[in-house]
Design a protein that fits this description.
signal, about 50% helix, PYST_A, alpha+beta, Fam-a protein, elongated, about 375 residues, START-like_dom_sf
């Protein structure tokens, strides 16, 4: 309840109580509450004085009871305004307090949220970091294993080609078991049988000593045969172990281009001396995913190659069995620079892998024709 109203009510109650006492005193029996002496005095007193003592001017009572409504209104208005201001002040203080507490709560919640999120982020980053480390570790281990396999494969290839080179040098020497096949235009071709296969040996001289390096480069280049063999289609290197040790793919076609053949072979280039270089090729049973030619090939001359079975990522036509496949038992070019010429000794033994029986003489003729293409180097590198 409003404080102003309480004050007014209390004032009215006091006035009313006072009037009630006056009336009660005027009617009350004097013998009851006063002594005889006092009663006498009261009875002998002047009636007008008694009347004056007992009588209270109604106007004075009215003035005491009457309160100017405007003063009450002003009082109430002032007190109400003070209450409103007080309440407003308290409300504003409450709002500010609530705002401060709310801001503090928000900051606290934000801090807690950020702390929680930060912890979660740290945990997530820790998990991701651990997963990344594990992935890197797995990839690193796989790379190490892959590199180890490549190194092992390269070492095996190097050992095979060292033996192939020794065999090529051995068969490049003329022995009595060689039989003359042809002698034309200064080129001599012999054949012999070794382990039930033909080995041919062709000797040719290029009368230009300055062509030594160019001849070596042409014979080593994967597509170099295009310069002297019109049946050669193309060549490329599926694997390179080092600049002088590779796996080469060679493709050939017949004159009518009605069929194609291919082969995969290890190839190496070795500098025997300052003026002598050997280029050697030999095949093994390589996994080139040929769906038609599934023969397990065993090299009858370079037998150390039979344990070499690398994976070859070959083209679709090979995978689909659209080409015929041949194998190189042993093929070599030994190029030696002389004072006035370059001498080439060409050794070749090829498994033509024909699907039906063909007379040995016919297959030897095919090999001889292919080997004789080397004589065209004389025209290519003739001295100007």
């Amino acid at each position: 309840m409003n404080k102003g109203y309480i004050k007014i009510v209390l004032a009215l109650l006091c006035v009313a109580g006072y009037m009630q006492n006056v009336v009660f005193a005027s009617e009350y029996d004097p013998s009851t509450n006063f002594s005889n002496e006092e009663s006498k005095q009261l009875l002998t007193a002047d009636p007008e004085e008694v009347q004056q003592q007992l009588f209270i001017d109604p106007e004075e009572i009215q003035k005491q009871l009457s309160i100017n409504p405007e003063e009450i209104q002003q009082q109430l208005s002032t007190e109400s305004e003070e209450d409103k201001q007080h309440e407003s002040t308290e409300s504003e203080e409450d709002k500010q307090q609530v705002s401060i507490e709310s801001e503090e709560n928000k900051q606290q919640e934000s801090t807690e949220s950020e702390s929680t999120e930060s912890e979660e982020n740290k945990q997530q980053e820790s998990i991701e970091s651990e997963e990344d480390k594990q992935q890197v570790s797995i990839e690193s281990e796989e790379n190490k294993q892959q590199e180890s396999l490549k190194l092992k494969e390269a070492n095996q290839a190097e050992n095979i080609m060292a033996k192939a080179l020794a065999l090529a040098q051995e068969h490049a020497k003329h022995t009595k078991d060689y039989k003359l096949y042809s002698n034309k235009n200064g080129a001599t071709l012999h054949f012999k049988r070794v382990n039930n296969v033909d080995i041919g040996k062709l000797e040719v001289t290029i009368p230009n000593p300055d062509s030594y390096t160019d001849i070596v480069n042409m014979l080593w280049y994967p597509n170099g045969a295009k310069s002297y063999n019109h049946l050669f289609d193309k060549g490329y290197l599926p694997k390179i172990y080092n600049p002088n040790l590779v796996i080469v793919q060679q493709r050939y076609r017949n004159p009518n281009k009605t069929w194609k053949t291919y082969c995969h072979a290890l190839a190496s280039k070795s500098q025997l001396s300052e003026d002598e270089t050997a280029i050697v090729l030999t095949s093994s049973h390589m996994n080139d995913h040929d769906s038609k030619n599934t023969k397990i090939y065993l090299n009858p001359i370079v037998k150390s190659a039979n344990t070499f079975n690398p994976e070859i990522d070959s083209e679709e036509d090979i995978r689909n069995g659209q080409l015929s496949k041949t194998y190189i038992n042993l093929l070599a070019f030994i190029i030696k620079k002389e004072a006035d010429c370059v001498k080439i000794t060409h050794v070749s033994s090829v498994d033509h892998n024909v699907p039906f029986r063909i007379p040995q003489e016919l297959l030897r003729g095919v090999t001889a024709a292919t080997m004789s293409n080397i004589t065209k180097l004389r025209d290519i590198f003739k001295k100007e």
